[in-house]
Amino acid sequence: MSLRLFDSHCHLNLPELAPQMDAHWQAAQAVGVAALLIPAVEQAAWQPLLQLRQQQPDWQPLLQLRQQQPDWQIALGIHPWWAAQHSLQVVTELETMLREQQDAICAIGEIGLDFALAPETFSMQQQLFEAQLALAARLNKPVILHHRKSQPHLLAAIKRENFADGGILHAFSGSPEQGQAFIDCGFKLGIGGTISYERAAKTRRAVEQLPLSAFVLETDAPAMPLAGFQGQTNTPAQLALVFQHFCQLRPEPPEQLAEALWHNTQQVLRLDPTSAG
Ligand SMILES: [Zn+2]
After folding, report:
1. In this structure, are residues 178 and 151 in contact, taking their beta carbons and an 8 Å threshold?
2. Who surrounds ion ligand 1 at CB < 5 A?
3. What keywords is this UniProt entry annotated with (predicted)?
């Protein structure tokens, strides 16, 4: 039996992982990771990510014949931690890039709101987030959402915008009810190392109680190490452990879980031509 897993959130391009990018990818593949999504955090990352994406062998006739997608997907956007380093003009530049590279960029991200940061950053965070969400709506792209102390504000913006293209609420933590509110808006919940901590009772309950169709897996490498690995650099190969923890919280057999999670990720990122919509 071979399982295929999709790391829906992995910062392979950040300095902690980039020097050993190929080794990390090989280690991840060895434990069943068959695809990953790298979201940008700042404008300086966009062009290098596009180049990484274009090195992917999706031009190969065999892949085209099987209608397979390349293994590495990318999302471009401005993360709230980097908001202060940009002006709103950056969203116009993002739009130009997205229009030129429609097929290479599967989502807008990582975007969102982080209200654990200093309050003086909130106004710029909010402006950049709303402009990027509006851009995603115009271009019909899903979004990759970052949240910290901001879930209600994200939901409010999604509803104000009538945003209907969905995406992934990355690094989900919260109750089943909090998760359901995003599912109702067309989002999947990104489940990562958080569920390996016994103290994450609410999040673990959400994994137990919400429908399987609600979830995708992620590592958020190099961040968010699992329980037992605190202080270490997280890597995409750890997705296999995230999956094991996920399996412990669900009644379905691992093969069924892996297949559903893979399908959920393909669907929300619109990578599978047979599951569009
Ligand atoms: Zn991230």
Report:
1. yes
2. 110
3. Hydrolase
Q: What is the 3-state secondary structure (H, E, C) of 40-109?
A: CCCHHHHHHHHHHHHCCCCCCHHHHHCCCCCCEEEEECCCHHHHHHCCCHHHHHHHHHHHHCCCCEEEEE
For residue range 35-64, what is the model confidence (pLDDT) as tens digits?
A: 999 999 999 999 999 999 988 765 444 555
d(CA 138, CA 123): 23
Cα(39) to centroid(ligand 1), Å: 7
CA-CA distance, 63 to 60, in Å (whole number)?
A: 5
Cβ–Cβ under 8 Å, residues 36 and 7: yes
Distance 61 CA to ligand 1 centre (A): 33
Within 13 Å of residue 67, how many CA atoms lie on the same side as its CB? Answer: 7
- Using a 10 angstrom Cβ sphere, with 0-12 exposed, 13-18 middle and 19 or more buried, the burial of residue 119 is exposed
Distance 60 CA to ligand 1 centre (A): 30
What domains does the chain contain, in order, with CATH numbers? 5-275 (3.20.20.140)
Q: Per residue in 9-29, pLDDT tens?
A: 999 999 999 999 999 999 999
Ligand 1 mean position to 62 CA, how many Å? 32
Q: Give the pLDDT band (50/70/90) at residue 276.
A: very low
